[in-house]
Every structure is written in structure tokens, then in C-alpha cells.
């Protein structure tokens, strides 16, 4: 599995780019949103990738962040949503917009993507709504953008340097989970005050809950009371 491509951008087409990696060119399909954010030919570029394997076809799809790659994978689990349709949704809404639309049950936002009809949009919302908080929590911590080329090709440290490394960081604390949940809610458009109050209430009711569970509980508290 090819999980990431790092090299020099050779050329840009309407829906894909060619990335030269030490003399080997890889065609990577990208959304319009991703294409617009990429540098010009000859510049260093790095994308997370998903390899689509069919009987007569191998295609690489590229994403600027891991969370967008994960959304692409999840969108394709919905019946009727293929790789190109998933890219159309992400190209129209972005990872955050997709998270927001699915979490809030906004099928019209999903339908705004080219080629997505009302039935498919409704199916996307219904099937993925319960999975949205976990994906949102992935993007609530440090930025998960693909690293720069210089970072990728940096030589590994020597044995003494490896031995001197600090031990792995401890598991996220309760405060970390609350902070991640708060960040995810603010990314969805909720104000800092109302988001903080909802997260605090959810954390008090379920002290052992991790970020995805806190997000779900807080969203229930913030949902309009009918």
C-alpha cells in the first residue's frame, strides 16, 4: 500500500498531478480544492495517498491531510459513492465542511457536490453520522498535514541519538480529551462559550469518556430542542 507520496511536482492537469519521486513519476488524482493549494511545477510536494485497486486499473488518490484521506475512505463505504464521488464531496466541502454537514445531518450540503443526488446525499448522512465524531477528533489535535519533502528525506538518527530519545508520551489525559472535543466543536462553527459549556457538562456526566464520546454527548446537548 502506498500511503504517502513525496517528490517534485512535474505537471498539473484538471483532476490529477504527476509527482516525480527520484526519477519515477506517479499520477495522483486530487480534488479541485487540493489542486488549488498545491505549488507550481518543480516545487516540492507531499500528499497522503489511497491506492484504489481494480481488476484492470490502479489509481492513486491524494490528500493534504490524514483526516481528509480518512473521510475519503469512509465515504466510499456508502453504497453508490465511488472514489470520484467521494473526491467531489471533499473538493466541494473540504474535510471540515464534510464533517459539519454529516454531523448536523445537512444532506443538502452533501448534495451540492457535483454528481451527488438527494438519495445518495441522504444515505451519506445517515450511514456516516455516528462515525463523524471520531474523524473530527483526529483533526482536533496537532495539524496532520503531509510533511514537507525535506522532513521526509531527512536521514535517520544514529544509534546513540536513538538511544537518547525521550520515552513515548503518556496516553491523553481527561483534559486532553476535553480540549480535543472543544476544538472539534469550534471547527463545526459553535461559539467558544457554548461549546465549552457543552463539553464541560458532557465530561462531568461521563468522566472516563474520550474525545469522540464527548463530541457526541456535547452535540446532543447543543442540538435544538424541538
From TrEMBL:
| Domain I as annotated region, ranges | 1-64
| Domain remarks | Has three domains with a flexible linker between the domains II and III and assumes an 'L' shape. Domain III is highly mobile and contacts RuvB.
Q: Where in the sequence does UniProt note compositional bias of the Low complexity kind?
A: 160-175
- What is the originating organism of this protein? Aliigemmobacter aestuarii
Alphabetical list of SMART domains matching this protein: HhH1
Its biological purpose is as follows: The RuvA-RuvB-RuvC complex processes Holliday junction (HJ) DNA during genetic recombination and DNA repair, while the RuvA-RuvB complex plays an important role in the rescue of blocked DNA replication forks via replication fork reversal (RFR). RuvA specifically binds to HJ cruciform DNA, conferring on it an open structure. The RuvB hexamer acts as an ATP-dependent pump, pulling dsDNA into and through the RuvAB complex. HJ branch migration allows RuvC to scan DNA until it finds its consensus sequence, where it cleaves and resolves the cruciform DNA.
Tell me what this protein is called: Holliday junction branch migration complex subunit RuvA
Region span, Flexible linker: 146-158
Q: Where in the cell is it found?
A: Cytoplasm
Q: Which InterPro entries has this protein been placed in?
A: DNA_helicase_Holl-junc_RuvA_I, Hlx-hairpin-Hlx_DNA-bd_motif, NA-bd_OB-fold, RuvA, RuvA_2-like, RuvA_C, RuvA_C_sf
- Region described as Domain III: 159-226
Amino acid at each position: 500500500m502506498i500511503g504517502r507520496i513525496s517528490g517534485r511536482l512535474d505537471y498539473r492537469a484538471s483532476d490529477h498531478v504527476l509527482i516525480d519521486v527520484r526519477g519515477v513519476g506517479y499520477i495522483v488524482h486530487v480534488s479541485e480544492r487540493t489542486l488549488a493549494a498545491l505549488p507550481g511545477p518543480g516545487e516540492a510536494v507531499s500528499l497522503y495517498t489511497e491506492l484504489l485497486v481494480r481488476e484492470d486499473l490502479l489509481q492513486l488518490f491524494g490528500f493534504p491531510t490524514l483526516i481528509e484521506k480518512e473521510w475519503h475512505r469512509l465515504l466510499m463505504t456508502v453504497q453508490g459513492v465511488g472514489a470520484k464521488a467521494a473526491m467531489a464531496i471533499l473538493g466541494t466541502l473540504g474535510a471540515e465542511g464534510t464533517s459539519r454537514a454529516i454531523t448536523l445531518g445537512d444532506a443538502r450540503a452533501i448534495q451540492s457536490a457535483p454528481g451527488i443526488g438527494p438519495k445518495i446525499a441522504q444515505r451519506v448522512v445517515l450511514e456516516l453520522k455516528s462515525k463523524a465524531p471520531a474523524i473530527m477528533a483526529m483533526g482536533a489535535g496537532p495539524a496532520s498535514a503531509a510533511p514537507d519533502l525535506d522532513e521526509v528525506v531527512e536521514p535517520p538518527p544514529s544509534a546513540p541519538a536513538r538511544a537518547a530519545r525521550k520515552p513515548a508520551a503518556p496516553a491523553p489525559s481527561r483534559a486532553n480529551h476535553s480540549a480535543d472535543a472543544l476544538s472539534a466543536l469550534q471547527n463545526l462553527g459553535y461559539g467558544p462559550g457554548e461549546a465549552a459549556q457543552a463539553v464541560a457538562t458532557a465530561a462531568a456526566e461521563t468522566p472516563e469518556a474520550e474525545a469522540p464520546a464527548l463530541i457526541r454527548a456535547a452535540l446532543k446537548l447543543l442540538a435544538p430542542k424541538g
